[in-house]
Each structure stands twice: as C-alpha cells, then as structure tokens.
Design goal:
Layout (H helix, E strand, L loop, with lengths): L1 E3 L5 E3 L4 E3 L1 H9 L10 E2 L3 H5 L4 E4 L13 E4 L12 E3 L14 H10 L8 E2 L19 H10 L5 H4 L5 E2 L2 H14 L2 H6 L1 E4 L3 E4 H4 E3 L11 E8 L8 E5 L8 E5 L1 H5 L4 H8 L8 E6 L1 E4 L6 E4 L6 E5 L4
Parallel strand pairs: 8-9, 8-10, 12-13, 15-18
Antiparallel strand pairs: 1-7, 2-3, 2-4, 5-6, 10-11, 13-14, 13-16, 14-15, 16-19, 17-18
Length: about 325
C-alpha cells in the first residue's frame, strides 16, 4: 500500500541546504530582524526538478508561542517523483494490528512513533555539527561519502535512504522529539519508546532524559533537564541560569561563558531566546554535560562543553 511518511527534512531555498525543521528554526532566528520566512522544496533532487514545494509549519515561532510542534508536510498542490523518499510502500496491518513478523511490543512502539512528527530512533552525540543536516542520518561508514556529496549538493546520499531508522546528531531535534512524545503519548506508549545512543547501545527514551534534581556529581551519560531562571547579570555575551531545584540542598547553576557564546555559529538564536526572559515564567534547560561541585563547595554547576548540546525552551508567558 502506498502511503506518506512524516517529512523530517526539506531543501531550504535560502540557505541551499537540506535541513530538519529545527535546524531551519535555528537558521531563521539566527538572522537579524526583520526576518523573512524561508521557502522549502522536497529533499529529493528529482522532486525539486518538478518544483515540489514542502510546507513548513511553526519553524518561525518559539515553542511557547504555539501548541503544535514545528514540522514539515507535503503540499498537495505539487507532485513528487516516484523515487521520493517520503512516499513509501507500506505493509498493511493484519487482524491483530501487527505487520508481518512483528511482535506485540514492536507493534505498540511502531504505533506510538506514528503519532509523532519526527521520532528519533538513534542519536550520535559525538558527531560534529555540520552546516547542513544532510548527513545527520548517515552511519559512520558513510561519513566520507556523505561529506563528498555534501560538498557537491545538499541532497541526502542514497546510502542512507534504505534505512528505516530515523538517526540524528542534532541535539535540539532529539529534545523536540522527546518533548512531543512526553506531551502527546499516554504512559504505556511513552514507556515503549527506545533510543540507540552511539557508544552506549539501546536505552529507554524515558531513562535517557533525567531531571536535574536526581543528577549526581561527576560525569553523566544522560540528558539533564530542569526549569531555571535567567539571572540579570550578564558576563559579556555569557549568561547564567539558576535551576529551581537543588542537588544535595545546594543551588545549581548553568554558566555559559562569553567565549562559548562568541564561538557558536547560532549565537543570535540563543540571544533571541534570552531576550524573552522578562516575558516568560522560566526556561526549561536540556543539556548534555556534567555535574560539578563549585570551588567553594557551596553550589553545584552544570557544565556544557558545546553549545550545540544545550537547548533552552522558554516557558509560558507571564
């Protein structure tokens, strides 16, 4: 049966790259105002030759300003090539609601994933961020070929298309996938979701995201998250957020130096988020980092080495 997959990437005309919707949002808010919306075409070169446009929703809005997650969708006014990766031959479910050879747990997980705009099956936190998401979903063995292709074109290499797994190194994309799953799935569906982490193996998605109040001193192999308030004092371009929860009865801070901000290509995107501090109740912080005791031993810090491993989600407006 021919059906449509959820679209996770599209070609941005303005940047000339195949990007995820979250990379498009970073690019959009990294521009100086006034900002102009992007135009998107299908990620497939053959479809672009047909002029197949893709609709992008809510990439130009911050998460607190919309009830629907940012996502791509097919524009019904345009035709796609027969080879389009978003049009697939999909097996029909049997009377028991399973696909051929599928276990009950696998069926439950597949149905839960089908409710999400962009569920991530595998995450590689070590892969360096690229100017384009085009090699986001490619295995290590394909990296050399992928970089060659990326230099010629923003198209996704065909070597990655055969995989049914949705892989990424984009931390924000992983966070948004988790947030939507947590919000829209019931407890049983949410518990069924798995995630493969490069270097760690398969874990429960729920386990991989840990609230800051349960974190321990030392290195961590999980995403730490929690609500916090931006402190008024700035450190050049740097900033500090105090979490609302404590660890061992000590206050917990996230400090980002001016040097870190200056060296980050999406600095303007973070600055735009920080500018909302007076209008939102708090920020939810998601980070890959480690928990350290301050030199004075009176407080605890969440250290983040790379800003691509930090996501700030503004809370509801005041």
């Amino acid at each position: 049966m021919m059906t449509q997959k959820r679209i996770t990437r599209a070609y941005c005309v303005q940047t000339g790259n195949v990007v995820s919707v979250f990379a498009a949002r970073r690019d959009f808010f990294s521009m100086a105002p006034p900002r102009i919306r992007f135009d998107f075409l299908c990620s497939e070169e053959a479809c672009r030759a047909l002029g197949a446009k893709i609709t992008a929703t809510n990439y130009d809005k911050h998460p607190q300003d919309t009830h629907k997650a940012a996502h791509f969708s097919l524009n019904p006014r345009y035709s796609h090539a027969d080879t389009c990766e978003w049009i697939i031959d999909h097996d029909e479910e049997g009377p028991d609601g399973r696909l051929r050879g599928e276990s009950e747990d696998d069926a439950r997980r597949r149905r839960a994933k089908s409710k999400l705009d962009d569920y991530i099956d595998a995450f590689d936190p070590m892969l360096e961020a690229k100017a384009s998401d085009a090699i986001d979903e490619i295995s290590d063995s394909d990296q050399v070929e992928a970089r060659t292709v990326l230099n010629r074109s923003a198209d996704r290499p065909t070597t990655a298309r055969a995989s049914k797994d949705n892989k990424t190194s984009d931390f924000e994309r992983l966070v948004e996938s988790y947030r939507q799953a947590k919000k829209e799935l019931d407890d049983e569906e949410f518990r069924s979701l798995k995630l493969r982490i490069k270097g760690q193996g398969e874990v429960s998605l729920r386990w991989y995201f840990q609230h800051i109040k349960y974190a321990k001193l030392g290195a961590t192999d999980r995403v730490l998250m929690g609500g916090g308030d931006l402190l008024a004092k700035r450190y050049g371009k740097g900033f500090k957020i105090q979490f609302r929860d404590k660890i061992d009865d000590k206050p917990v801070f996230l400090y980002i130096s001016s040097e870190q901000m200056m060296g980050y290509k999406s600095q303007r995107y973070i600055e735009d988020l920080l500018s909302l501090a007076d209008t939102v109740r708090f920020y939810t912080v998601f980070a890959l980092g480690r928990i350290v005791l301050s030199p004075s031993t009176k407080s605890i810090g969440l250290e983040v080495n790379e800003l691509r491993h930090l996501v700030l989600v503004p809370g509801k407006k005041k």
